[in-house]
Fold each of these.
Amino acid sequence: MSVVPAESLSGSARGVARAAAPAPAELGPRARLWPSLGAVYRAQLSRARVARIPLLFVATFQSIGILVMMRGVVDGGNEAEPVVAGSAVLVVAFVALNLLAQYFGQLRASGGLDHYATLPVPPAAVVLGAAAAYASFTVPGTVVTAVFGCVLFGLPLTHLWVLAAVIPLAGAALSGLGAACGLLAPRPELATLLGQLGMSAALLLGVLPADRMPEVVRLARDLLPSTYGVEALARTFAASPDWAYVLGDLAVCAGVGMASLAVATWAYRRAAVR
């Protein structure tokens, strides 16, 4: 009988086990931004459709009520242009600032960010998808408010097609700001307060004619992202719009939107790791 050393047995067993062990599985490709953005957008759109439609009616009726109220103060002409434009953009501010700040504030407080953190999607896709979904609900209310205001104050309807640029650009700027408020606020109640304060600022600084405001208030108005969307829309009510100024206002609104969404993405990363 031959005796085999235990060391050789253990070594051979390790060799057999190493040969039988399967090779480590390769990781799948990293999720790309645009497909992830589309998936998050569709999910947010279907989730928020039932809950947010009644609030959209509230936002629209609120803006129409402001138009009716301002009709007793402003007769028409140049002063009516910012009133109509500001009331239309106010629908965007109500949803993008107020509701989005509440959504991300509650999502952070309830631990919902942990669910998104486990998904193979970039942080920017989560923020942009939610912002785009909420901004989509503002399209009907903004168009109805703008048409109603033009009819009420006798303004032309010719160039209302510019809303196709004003809504997404102003929505991006305000959505980024609302998402950042919800993600950075330590409590959901504070996120709700910040969103309502932002919407109130959009109401007071965007609807009232700038010529009647003090200089300090005008400076504060220039810092509000929605101001440039209001200005771009208001300029199109003129008989011969200065399209260079309109494009300039839209470009500023786009730049502010990119910056605010970048801040919101950073705030999402910061809140997701805590």
Note: The longest helix spans residues 33-71.
Amino acid sequence: MNKTTFKISKMDCPSEENLIRMKLEGDSDIQHLEFDIPNRKLTVFHHGNVEGIETTIHDLNLGDTLLSTETIDPYDPNNNFKTDTDSSHKKDAEQRKLLWIVLVINFAFFIIEMSTGLISRSMGLVADSLDMLADSFVYGISLFAVGGTVIKKKRIAKIAGYFQITLAILGFLEVLRRFFGNEQLPDFSTMIVISILALIANSICLYLLQKSKSKEEAHMQASMIFTSNDVIINLGVIVAGILVNWLHSSTPDLIIGSIVFALVIQGAFRILKLSK
């Protein structure tokens, strides 16, 4: 058996981990995957050559680098390769339960941020809600396709990806309309309060997804949380709300909205990679 380690520079939250898992599933040569999100590393235990696996991961455009590959004895406990099938099924069931929890949290905040964003006239909140929806799509594709065919999973991924792109483009058009129009200032207090709540929700999701990992990885929760894209976006909307109030201008809100819409489109293209 071979053990290959990749550096995935853009794997900074569990949604990227889930994308990689879905992309690699179905490869009969792959026996086990180990993710180290805080250090952005992926270890693949597999038979055969690594070239096909490397190409598949590279298609996701997550900044992958092949660090090492070596032949190992799968029964050597020092290799951290688990052969206990019952333990693996139990772990899968636990992760499925956690995925349902974070799916509900993400989708709930999509509704909350979209509603408050429209009411408060904040494009930053609207864009952030789409980012929450993007994460919901990733978790949902994995859950709803469980037990289904590969074709079913690809069909769901394609619908989700194009739907996400459509919403982001409509968001960009609304940003342009507001930039050249004479719109009222967004409600900065709503922007700040809702983004703080979203920040807390993202932190809870990251904690829940990692709580089944080793204590060593759990100890690194803080660094993972503060390097995740979702948290950076939440902080960006908070800063934009402060600047809106300070400058009496909607420009900071439109800028952060545009940035997040671009990230949403980037995420949508990654989802579409799953449909190929």
Note: The first strand starts at residue 2 and ends at 8.
Amino acid sequence: MSSTVVSTASSVIEEQLAAVREAIASRTALSRVVLTACGGSYAVMLPGEYFLGTSAAVLEAVALNAAEFTSRGSSRVDAQTVVILCSHSGTTPETVAAAQHARERGALTVAFTHELDSPLAQASEYVIGYQHGAEKSESYVAPVLLLRLIARILDDREGASFVEAIDAVAASLPNLVPAARAAHTEAADRWAFASRREPLIYTMAAGSNYGTAYSFAICLLQEMQWVHSAAIHSGEYFHGPFEITDVDVPFIALLGLDETRPVEQRAVDFLTKHSDKALVIDAAEFGLDGIDDSVRGIAAHLLFNPVLRTYADALADHRGHPLSVRRYMWRMDY
């Protein structure tokens, strides 16, 4: 099985996940979880911070950019801390440095990466190798595996009961994801054709979906399409950003299913009243009715990610600008 298609077999990933769970359980004084990465990998961490923040009574949780994590040099990163890191290639210098910094402080380090022999994998005590590529299983991509790990931490340290429900979500994704993408194919093509010459597109969300909006803005639009963008938190929209709303200003707004849906809905109500170029994507249409109520909200971002990729693929096609094209990234030192 080629590492360029699928990084790790599912059976091996299950073993890795079990080993990490056991290692974290052995740290009886564990009191905080730090999730750290850069770019799109950092965005993957944000729903995890939300899940911990809304479900943990004892554990502290924070998500930080890897360079900031290391620069802060917090004395609270110690043997009572588990530091979870992510880098697709495993070569992101800031994330590798963050792993080394965390280990020097005595923290338990867990790396998510596609490359098991990468510098990040070598710098971390435990590694979970997620799948990627055309032959991947939607059950074994990074956001899903991170959610499964956090469910185990919450069950073990907080006496919660999320593992069974989250694992059921993971098992359902190979059916849910293709269906959701197919349901949006025509809408994505229409939106992409209409938006192909837009110089700027804002994204907006809150709660466990904000990371997805952030990733779409900085990775898909700015990095891969060279389209100006900014991710706006729906709760912050009325504290400045809504002043730039106009009939010809394009937005992509997400409506999730977690506790912050009313926050997102308020922003969407204003946006759709004052802009003719508002694209609203509602997780209520993702077919998640069969998902356990306790995890339906946190599960929505797992569908937003591939659905938004459908829109990005269509935009790249209509702009004649492949998502693989870069101006600076990987082409020079920086």
Note: Confidence is low (pLDDT under 50) at residues 1-5.
